[in-house]
Amino acid sequence: MGREEQIEEREVLDSIFPDEITDIDEKSYRITIKPQTQNPDGSDTEPPTLLLTITYPPSYPDEAPLLDLSLPPNAPKLPHLDLTTDRPTLLSSLDQIISESLGIVMIFTLVTTLTETIENLITSRISDIQKEKDREAEEAEAKENAKFHGERVTRDSFLKWREGFRAEMEKRVEEEERVKEGEGKRGAKKEERLTGRELWEKGMVGKEADMEEEEGLEEGMEGLKVE
Questions:
Q1: pLDDT tens digits along 184-193
Q2: How would DSSP label each residue in 100-118?
Q3: Is 0.85 surpassed by the pTM of this model?
Q4: From the DSSP assignment, how many helices (H) and strands (E) are in the chain?
């Protein structure tokens, strides 16, 4: 009975996976799996290609099928999946379904479950990478914003700033007073040293000249003799 069920299941699988299934021998075949995932922006990623090899033991489906997961020959390294470490975890994720399905054919269920598990694993890793990028971007943005916002003001920082501000203002006032005092002294000296024009304009030069002329005339008149 087991062999008849194996043949019947194999024929059904041919109709479900016409382009994905390949015979190895009478009891073994290989199904190509291409998990569909999306990038964080909603665009589809390039689906990885995996090969699930199924081998029927003599008493299948009363006995669990033999399964193996591999990459096609010369396949490039997958960016979000490493079969060296992920293979045992992925295959063991089918153990419960196999245990619950003993006695009935189960390969289609195993293939769909394995595909979904791989898709969830890849999606989770893509999401983790995006979260890390977002975190780094937020940290960079916070550092950039800190340049414009400055440090957070606290009571202690405000008191320290106020003390420094008052000291600086007192210093400026003292400097301004010294400058004004110096300008006042220089102005007084300038007033003491008037130019000739300033003296003339103020009438000081004219008065002295007139006085000298009057004295000269008086001396001249005294020297004259009237006949």
A1: 666 555 555 6
A2: HHTTS--HHHHHHHHHHHH
A3: no
A4: 7, 4
The DSSP symbol for 58 reads T
Q: Are 171 and 165 in contact (CB under 8 A)?
A: no
Residue type, 49: T
Residues 6+ apart with CB under 8 A from 124: none
Rounded Cα gap, residues 33 and 215, in angstroms? 134
Residues in CB range of 50: below 8 A, 6 or more apart: 32, 33, 34, 35, 69, 70, 71, 83, 118
C-alpha angle 93/89/62, rounded to 5°? 40
Q: Cα–Cα distance between 118 and 113 in angstroms, integer?
A: 9
Structure tokens at 193: 């040293």
